[in-house]
Each structure stands twice: as structure tokens, then as C-alpha cells.
Please model this.
Amino acid sequence: MKIILNQDVVNLGEEGDVVVVKDGYARNYLLPTGAAVLYNKTNAAVFASRAAQIEKRKAEKRAQSASMKEKLDATVLNIIVPAGESGKLFGSVTSTMVQEALAKQGIEVERKKIEVATHSIKMVGNYTVTVHLYENEFSHVKLVVESEEMVKARKAAEAKAEAEAKAKAEAEAKAAEEAAASEAEPAGEEAPAAEETN
Model:
């Protein structure tokens, strides 16, 4: 069935594109949701009259996609999940989890545009997630998957190191105070001796 897209449809086309799809896809999804209209002379004329507006929106989307790409390429996501001792996750990391992690960093991306490698991540480690932006633009987001135990152990080690550094700093400060006090005492005794000579 020949249709005209009324909006961008992932893996199909952009607003204003004329595409041929299977009848069932058009009748059951694209037409009822308003994502497309049937291709005929009337609808083609309507879209031809809107061509300038559509082109302007496409240019805006390209510019937005370029700025989003820079932001996403610089992003490193940390996802903490329950895992066994071997590093195998109890469950898996999905595109929904990635979308939520991006949202926490203030980046809004549609879930269907996020492609998780092998559809789900089942081990702790470092991964790359692909995000489809616009047309043939893709961004690659770095993803670090950690187990809850790894995070607890790291936080405990950091807390221990911080406590040791604080104790060391306090000991050094105390030693410096004692040294300053011991230097001040002899100077105080010499002053009266100097007065006696005068």
C-alpha cells in the first residue's frame, strides 16, 4: 500500500515521505494512529503545499540531532544492578533502563531509538549503546554496568581511604601545632634575659 508519512516513523521514513508498506501495517498501525495517510492526488497536493514547512522542521531536527550527538557521545552511564559473584546479572540491562539513566542526566531519548547490544546485557562490564538520532545519525553512549556488591566494596574502600587521609591530616596538623608551640617557648624565655642585659 502506498502512503504518505504524517510524522517521522523509525526505520521507515520522515514526515512527507511517500513509502510503500504492507497493507496490514498500514491498516492496523500507521493509518489508525495518524502516522500516515493514504497516497492519493488530494493528499499529495496537501503535502506539496506543506513542503516548505516540512523542510524547515527537518532542518531544525538535524541541528537538534547534531547537538544531541555531542552530548550523548560525551556521556558515560553507570547502571547498578544485582549480580552474582561471577559478575552474571540477575536479569539484564534493557533499553528502558538506559533511557531512565539518560533521563537522570537530563537527556530525553525515546526508548525505541535506543539499541542495546545483543538486545540485553547480562554481565557486568563496559559496553557501548547505540542511539538513533535522525536520518542516518547515530550516537554511541558508553555504559558501565556494575553489581551492587562492587559498588558497596568501592564505597567502603573510598570511605576507608577518606578516613585514613583525614586521620593523617589531623595528625600532621597536631604535629605542626606542637612544633610551633615548642619553638615559641624558647623565644619567650630569651626575652626576659635580653631585658636584664639592658
Remarks:
- Residues 190 and 196 are 10 Å apart (CA to CA).
- The two ends are 115 Å apart (CA to CA).
- Residues 187-191, 193-198 have pLDDT under 50 and may be disordered.
- The chain is about 50% helix and 25% strand.
